[in-house]
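Let us practice reading a record.
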Amino acid sequence: MKTSMIAAALGALALSLVAEAASAGPISRACMRSDRDAANSAICGCIQQVADQTLTGSDQRRAAKFFANPDAAQKVFLSKSNSDDAFWDRYKNFGATAEAYCAG
């Protein structure tokens, strides 16, 4: 009986860890991998929540690349493409919202 209870508890723990990892989106993962001093699970999770509310999945994957390669953001900012301009507007909104919502 004790063995089955321990197995059930371990199974529930494993399931919650898998669910937590699955809910970590591209922004949160990029944030955690970044070398920024302020990066931690709380702030990165908050930023991901804002991303989920303000960016599409495609936009999130694109923006996540900026954590590792800030020059990519500069290229988008300087681009004359209408689609890049539209993305940049969404990205700026995301950044301002994340700053207001997640700054502690």
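A brief commentary: Confidence is low (pLDDT under 50) at residues 7-22.
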